[in-house]
Request: fold
Amino acid sequence: MSSSEREPTGMDSLGALDAPPAPAGETAPPPPAPAEAEASESAQAEPEGEGSEPPMQVEAAGRPETGSTGDAPPSRPYPAPAETPTQAGPHGLRYDFNDGCRVLIPDADGGKWRVRLRDIDTGNILFETTLLSGRINSSKRYYIACRIEVWLNDELVLEHDYSAKDREVIVNFPVGTIGDTLGWFPYAAKFQRKHDCRLTCAMAERLIPLFQAAYPEIRFLSHEAVDTGDYYATYNMGLFFTDKDHIRQPCDFRLVGLHRTAAYILGVDPDEEPPSIVLEDDSRPIDEPYVCIGVQSTTQAKYWNNPAGWREIVKFLKDAGYRVICIDQRPVHGHGLTWNHLPHGCEDETGDRPLPERGRWLRHAEFFIGLSSGLSWLAWAAGTPVVMISGFTHPTNEFNTRHRVINYHTCNSCWNDPALMFDHKDFLWCPRHAGTPRQFECTRLITVEAVKAALRGIPGFGDASATSGAAANL
Reply:
């Protein structure tokens, strides 16, 4: 298995992570499949009752022979957890919750161990086995309040209930994303408040300045700065496309929303809330009323494919008294024979700028018009009204905005169809109508009038006397 990363275009990425086999993506591909538990004798699950099946699977396998060789270890999109469980128990036992519930069972000089894992919230016994020594790793890698019970020769020697209070926990975010991390991070903050833990968030270094001052109770690190030796629990954020067995996520992200999947992975309330961001320079960049637009993205399905759309909207906005500022990463982007250009009539503030500078432009804008992209999520975080033009995602995929523009008379929402696999390598991905006259009809048939109607619905639209950006996302 290999991993590759591609920097997002238009400051935008969906942060997709596939369970194996995985196509190359615009972010790092998935973590390796759950590691097998190592044991000196194969662990055998004991029945929980007539007709019952364990809702969590734990695998066991023998250690490789000394001196054996194999493939090089796969690279990972996240910092790898400590090789040995970090928490010490009696009789040489070790355990933790780093990428699943892990228990290390030492050799007890002929003594026999029995290990049971139980879901505290549901009461279900997830796994139970007897063994002489070995290693157990639960297959489920998302948050589960787990009880670990260990007996040595029928004597209960360890009973530990998951409790992150005052303990070190890390939540890892893939580094190739902007919008995804902005959407996921508030749920990590909820986790910290719920468990009163000492939380570390590992993420792309360019995002850290947005959050650091707003969340002093959370430690922010780049992936390279993480030392995994002391963490009690580890959770990985991502979009796991082929996780049909729900190893990394309890439910398919396409059914619950791109951002809300983090709530289910972390076991917190899924109600959305924008993250707080602090800008070192929060001054207004220009005096006149202005709006920001973001027209570029990482795949053509995300674009507003109406050929005259942006040109007419820019003119409409300028006639209403606004300066129109494009803040994309690039003025031109595309692939092969398909290229998307800066709209005629707008002002060019494109470039690979720091995210706090983009946040400054967005915070003071009257509103932002964009796609299902990182800039839309940043505008949401900045408290700016967002007019989102998207047809390939369903509105439940992103944060709620009353100014969402979608055309239900056309093919739509393919991104949220679990039967369709998003191909990160195909810039012209259109799974239902590729190569036909209906390709990209989801946004090609979003009319200028539909976008104008959404703009007119913004309170104060066209008020040329406005001198400051809206203070809340409407």
